Structure to design on (99 residues):
């Protein structure tokens, strides 16, 4: 990779910058939500267009969501959950040891 070092070292430098870790966590969460919706949609045998119609969204919005390209609102998550006939569970849990 030349003078800048290897990828792992550059990643560590970037994550040490102010706000980078938070942005990384937000991107990770968006990706995980998108992957979950894609898996649920595929289990139903639906296309993105079918999910979009059932949830009142556009196919391109579903595609962006599934790719982790957007951080959805709670209302969007609820519409997707309703369309996929699943319950949406949003909450907080303690980290580490159970309370």
């Amino acid at each position: 990779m030349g003078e800048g070092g290897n990828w792992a070292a550059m990643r560590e430098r970037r994550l040490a910058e102010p706000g980078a870790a938070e942005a990384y966590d937000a991107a990770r969460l968006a990706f995980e939500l998108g992957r979950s919706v894609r898996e649920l949609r595929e289990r139903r045998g639906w296309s993105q267009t079918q999910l979009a119609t059932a949830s009142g969204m556009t196919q391109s919005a579903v595609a962006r969501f599934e790719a982790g390209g957007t951080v959805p609102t709670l209302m969007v998550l609820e519409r997707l959950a309703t369309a996929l006939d699943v319950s949406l569970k949003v909450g907080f849990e303690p980290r580490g040891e159970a309370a």
Notes: Residues 70 and 94 are 26 Å apart (CA to CA). The helical segments are 7-15, 20-44, 48-55, 59-66, 74-84. The radius of gyration is 17 Å.
